[in-house]
Amino acid sequence: MPGVEVLPWLHEGPAPVTHSLAELTDIRANYLARDGGDLDQTRTILQARDRGLARSTSFDRIVLWFEHDLYGQLQLLQVLDWFSLQREEEDSRGRAGERLSRQPNARKHFGLSGTRA
Question: Is the pTM higher than 0.70?
Fold first, then answer.
């Protein structure tokens, strides 16, 4: 699909609490390359994913699609936490809501579809 960017999330290995996405990316890259994989290539792939996430502030729409299993839910929490931190940074700079105000038909809607408690 034109204009669509897909960011992969790898589904195995540690996902510890860290102080930054860059720190987690480094831990994940080291784990994924542990059995003879190319550490630099793995790190490059994950860093490209991180840059894509950082660019998401310029997207008109963001769709998050994860598996329903525990690991998928943990990855979803990681991404939502990242977005929350970005919003806190915008709030501290006095720019909260700026992106939404630029979108005339934008509506605030947050939720998880197809999930069960």
Answer: no
